[in-house]
Each structure stands twice: as structure tokens, then as C-alpha cells.
Amino acid sequence: MINKLKVKGNLNIVVKDKDGKIKDTRQVNNLVVTTGLNFITSRMTADTAIVMSHMGIGTGSTAPAAGNTSLVSQAGSRETFDTITVTNNQIEYTAIFEAGDQSGLITEAGIFNASGSATMLCRSTFGGITKNSDDNMTIVWTITVSA
What we know:
This protein has 147 residues and is mainly beta.
């Protein structure tokens, strides 16, 4: 019997206004890109790769492709994860883009291992979500590894 390893991810995005009222919520799948798959493999053989630590959002709408290494049009700076939870074959990354952070019509997101020059694990695009300057956007990104 041959096992085939699968890596998939999905995002739960919630935008709240300044009063904490939910303005928008989305469930979106993502693509684990080639650099992300290579990163996962490198972690199995050595402890030299820097762990995934940041999430970025952007305004690009080009569909995710395996060869992506960055967001098409990053909005502002990448956020350090607020929480990381590992349960069995899943890891959940949570980042909060707070009031005063990036704003505008957000259409893409990605996970990286640094705030600047970095390895991208995965990327997703979605229908535009308006984030005003006083809104909070929380993204909970779950990556599942299965056979």
C-alpha cells in the first residue's frame, strides 16, 4: 500500500468594526505553494529552517499558483502570530490585524517565516473584504497534514 501525504489549509476570516460588531466573515481554502512543501520537508530532516511566524494580507487578485513566493500586493507589514496551536495533524495560526493596521479592500493572505525576506508556506485569494482603518480583522488559518 502506498500512502500519499496531503497538506491542505483553510482560513476563517472575521472583520469587526470599532464597536466589536461582526461586519464580514469568510471560510476560504488555500494553496500550499512549492516553497511551503519544501519547507515542510526541510523541517523533517534538520532543525535549521526558521519556523513560520507571520501572516500577511494584500490586495492582489491573481489566483494562487504553486510557484508563488510572496503576496502579489502586500498591504502594510506582516503580523506576528497571536497564537499557534498544534493538535494531532493540524496547526492553527491566528493573526489579528488591528485598528490602525492595514486597511482597504483585502483580497489575499499568506503565511511566512519572517517579517521581511521570507519563505512563503501558503497563499489564498478571496472576494474582497473591506477593512476600514478602525476595524479589526482576525484570520485563523488551519493547516492539516493527512494521508
